[in-house]
Specification:
- The protein has strands spanning 3-7, 37-40, 45-47, 53-62, 66-78, 83-90, 100-103, 113-123, 126-136, 144-146, 151-156, 161-170, 179-180, 185-186, 197-205, 212-224, 235-243, 246-247, 256-260, 267-278, 283-292, 313-324, 330-333, 345-347, 364-373, 382-389, 398-406, 409-410, 415-419, 428-435, 448-460, 467-469, 472-477.
- With 478 residues, it is mainly beta.
- The chain has one domain (3-477).
- Strands 2, 3, 5, 8, 10 and 11 form a six-stranded antiparallel beta sheet that branches. It has a five-stranded antiparallel beta sheet with strand order 1-12-22-16-20, with no helix packed on it.
Length: 478
């Protein structure tokens, strides 16, 4: 089942309703936007029940109806070997949120995992409570912890126009073929005919009278679904963003990958983001699609050689939203703009002196931008970072941290992924976020330019060349 709709910012007194009105605004003093918040968990929190436990909570009173977005990023890890679930609850309801579920009990190497969840709602005037909650899944109870530096961002009354869609249940089976030479199937890097299954979608139109950026976020839970007859149905699940039915380039969208395998886990969170420039009056059809990493003939020289990815999987509890026509929006990318590419790897750590690789344990910038806050703007901006990590099975135990810095200061929720010995090749996706709201490390950003960086830090020993893709690493909107 798919739910979608167009949601517009609400009005409060003299508050600008859109980015076009920022330059005409006297101030934001009467805006509900000042109710926006960023809360970070100070200490690890043990979750010991299948009943929801509150991780972070925020209550506020709206003077008038308003649109609200909530985004949480962070890390969680098993104490026993349960399946841990994280989601956002708005006024007691969980149906507006994506879910992140990691099934540590299905893993031969249960390790700390990152999570990302999205929620949005149109709220009436009055008192409201938004909570980040967590629980063990009833099918696999046990204890786990949500780690410190996990955080909840609540953006009240966005200046951007929000379009959203949800998959509250589960997708059809995603069991595709990317390499079968006898059938003439050989999907290689950059091929535009990669098989996909559309999962969510909507159209976004630019009605602002000026060129705008549209920023898309999506998250959900990917899970093993069936024995495909190849590798027992285990393999690399791939979640992507298409526009107008076409596979996107590395400067337009990131991919999300999770290796659904006992060396990793059979259920885990997946998340991505993208950016699309819309001309005046232009409309784009955006779709979230499921596929698989392809190991075609161009991979013949790799250790595993060309072969079919046998993964059979599904996506559940997913949410996708696009913010367009804001006053402060954009993206930071790295590497060449490559069409439909999943293997644009860039080394980010080594302990073995690998040429071109930074020393392990150092912060490595994977995306950077000068973000300009215009006159009349309140400085409240939501930043999101995304990347994938892959190491080698001969690497040692590794800890991977993704974060965001503003003007050199680390400020964000931290995405964190551990890689087990003998299983470093199992790809995972990380995310991080930060909202420059009142009371935060930066507070609302001042008028002028600010340096914003997405960075990654990989520690462990030995490490040959753990890598991340060169693609869209950082997005932002207001």
């Amino acid at each position: 089942m798919m739910l979608c709709g167009l949601l517009a910012a609400g009005s409060v007194a003299a508050c600008p309703l859109s980015s076009a009105e920022v330059i005409r605004a006297d101030s934001f003093e009467n805006c509900a936007r000042v109710l926006s918040s960023f809360q970070k968990l100070g200490d690890d929190l043990t979750i010991n029940s299948t009943a929801p436990q509150i991780v972070l909570t925020r209550s506020f009173s709206l003077p008038a109806p308003a649109q609200v977005l909530a985004i949480a990023d962070g890390r969680y890890y098993p104490i026993d070997a349960p399946a841990g679930s994280v989601r956002i609850r708005i006024d007691g309801a969980e149906d507006q949120s994506s879910y992140a579920i990691t099934d540590w009990g299905s893993s031969a190497h249960p390790v700390m995992h990152g999570f990302n969840v999205l929620a949005d709602a149109r709220l009436d005037a009055g008192q409201h409570t938004i909570e980040l909650i967590a629980s063990a899944h009833p099918t696999r109870p046990g204890r786990f912890s949500v780690g410190s530096s996990s955080a909840l961002s609540i953006l009240v009354q966005p200046l951007s126009q929000i379009t959203a869609a949800a998959l509250p249940g589960e997708s059809p089976q995603i069991n595709l073929t990317t390499y079968a030479p006898a059938q003439g199937i050989d999907v290689r890097e950059g091929d535009m005919n990669r098989p996909v299954l559309p999962l969510l979608g909507y159209s976004v139109r630019n009605r602002s009278g000026r060129p705008v950026d549209a920023i898309t976020l999506a998250s959900g839970r990917g899970y093993y679904l069936c024995n495909s007859g190849i590798d027992n149905g285990f393999g690399d699940a791939l979640l992507g963003l298409f526009a107008d039915g076409l596979c996107q380039s590395t400067h337009s969208a990131s991919w999300s990958v999770n290796d659904l395998h006992p060396d990793a886990e059979l259920q885990a969170g997946m998340m991505l983001h993208g950016v699309h420039r819309l001309g005046i009056g232009q409309q784009r059809s955006l779709s979230l699609v499921g596929s698989e990493l392809a190991f075609g003939s161009d991979q013949a020289g790799s250790p595993s050689g060309a072969h079919e990815n046998g993964v059979c999987w599904g996506l559940g509890s997913a949410r996708m939203l696009t913010a367009s026509a804001g006053a402060v929006t954009g993206a930071a990318v790295s590497g060449p703009d490559t069409a439909c590419a999943t293997y644009t790897w860039r080394c980010v750590a080594t302990t073995l002196g690998q040429a071109g690789c930074p020393q392990a344990g150092t912060d490595v910038v994977i995306g950077s931008a000068q973000v300009q806050i215009p006159l009349g703007h309140d400085g409240i901006v939501l930043f999101n970072a995304r990347t994938r990590i892959q190491a080698g099975n001969d690497d040692g135990f590794a800890t991977v941290i993704l974060g965001i810095k503003v003007d050199g200061q680390p400020v964000s929720a931290l995405g964190l992924q551990q890689l087990a010995v003998g299983a470093g090749q199992a790809s995972r996706t990380l995310s991080a976020s930060y909202l420059s709201a009142p009371g935060t490390a930066t507070g609302p950003l001042s008028v002028g330019a600010h340096t914003v960086e997405a960075y990654i830090n990989v520690s462990g020993n030995p490490l040959r060349f753990p890598s991340v893709p060169s693609d869209v690493s950082l997005t932002w909107f207001d």
